[in-house]
Amino acid sequence: MAISQKLLSDGETVVVSTRTHAKALLAPLLVLVVVLAAAVSVQLLADNRYVTWFVWAVAAVVLLRYVVWPFLVWSTASYTFTDRRLVTRTGVLTRRGHDIPLSRISDVATELHLTDRMLGCGTLVISDASTHGQVRLPDIPHVEDVQRRLNDLLHGLHDPRTDRRDEGA
To answer: Among 12, 52, 112, 130, which lies 20 to 30 A Cα-Cα from 163?
Structure first.
């Protein structure tokens, strides 16, 4: 899940690497169960071989679009915090990336709805000094821990008493 080492600068280390919570796969899982149940029901009830083939062909298309594709989107997206920047990578066929230096981050907030609290995830809202203003990272697992680690990184970056070059010594 971590980004490739070739994307990191010399001396840069990964602090947190994650993707959206697996709850993003609940709807595709429900679609999988319903489509398979419907296709099997038609196969058992229909005595026409062509109808059965047609139903399974439609089921395959629906499964590819609403089960396989969301899984690919989920599995290829990553959010990585290094000791220098936030790196986001998304996309299956076309990869998109966004990097924000930690020095530009001005605020880190979390949003946790009832279901998020039950599932242990939430939205991380990062405010930066760019024209976009905010970057929302939805459904981050253990979002409060990630926020705490990011705040520690930012505190070390902005605290004049902390000399980051001496961390490895």
So the answer is: 130
